[in-house]
Input
Amino acid sequence: MPSSASILTLAAAVTGATAAFQGFNVESKGQTQQTFEAQFKTAQNLEGTNGGFNSARLYTMIQDGTTNDPISAIPAAISTKTSLLFGLWASAGQAQFNNEISALKKTANDYCDKLDGLVAGISVGSEDLYRDSELGQAAGEYVGVGPDVLADYVQQTRDAIKGTCLEKAPIGHVDTWTAYANETNRQLSDKLDWVGMDAYPYYENKKDNGIENAAALFQKAIDNTNAGTGNKPLWITETGWPVSGKTENKATANIENAQTFWREVGCPRFGKVNTFWFIMQDGGPTQSDKPSFGIVGGSTLSTKPLFDLSCDGYTNGGSGSSSSSSSSASQQSSSTEAATASQTETSAAAGSQTQTGTSSAEAATTSGPASSASGAPSTLSTSAATNPGSGPGPVVPVPSQSQPAGTGVVPSGTGVVPGGTGVPTSRTPTGPSGSSVPSQVSSAAGLNSIAAAVAAIMVAVAAF
Output
């Protein structure tokens, strides 16, 4: 028989149903618990953000320099009360993915009683479909894996967390909109609770990609992703605009444009759509023409950003969804356009796009294996969503330098050596983007998740 306390917990879930995760992507190479803590505390205290950036996205579950020990970002998150989007690297072959699964299981075993409210979800892979595509290969990317392999990895992940405190964590995948627009990849998105979109208008160098069009390009990326995934709950997993670097067609990298992008793309969605920005502080591109996306400059952490991060006056239209009429029309036209674009975009346009168009509340309404009830204590935040070909190619290194996605390089620190062994080393964004009005999902999602939580309360009450 459920206790009154458990019913109060369900009620709290209703009140927090429309909240969204907001944070930065974080690298793993060379990181320790202390350095992760320093980054998380800095993000929470950034001037102009009112403490809103209290979440972080991981690319791997494995601590750098180990075979399968849990990444030290986990105890750091517990210490600083930072929520995490877990990530399992998926382009290094089955043996390495087994290590990711082992680290995930150890996380549940070692930290289950301390993770309450700190798990946003689990991402299986990052841009693997893009790297496995003709587009990615034409750009000289590392080989990724196909949708069938990723779908199997998703099931392995569900099996691994079954019966643990992570069982209800929503499972998704992160990729570019060009990957989601490809119909052959629908077999993967259909098995996900949410999809993570990486989007960088800056890299869409075959389009009119000046900063004045960046918000519209970003919205188009959302529309194309929605059309290709059947409006699966969408999270923004990577996006940003460089503060320095070379010009990409009409896109100029400078602090002024980075602030404009923040205000027109980020501000309308912050707090409404699960959003993970790229990046708080850039690891430092080794070449002067490489773009730097850090909103904090230099090599020393600071809570003083390069530009004003406040969103006063820039939050209108940030519901995470466009109007049903405009979105319906745009999906019909964009589905065809997306299919064509996915064949013609340059590597830059297909690069790194990490944008999501649905709020966490919406994701919570999607049914799936992760939504089944469990007696295990919940580690999910009340704002977290709770819904549910080709064989493996050469392993891809996990990126160690901070560069946006779409370059085929994956996050580092998984214990695998670079050079096609499955450990990411550096990332570089390349992909389309859209308007300042997020895509069509969060409003309905909020209502649906509230309804779902109310239904859960009714079930609990009936059990008395």
About this structure: The longest strand covers residues 119-126. The chain has one domain: 20-449. Residues 324-344 form the longest helix (21 residues). The radius of gyration is 20 Å.
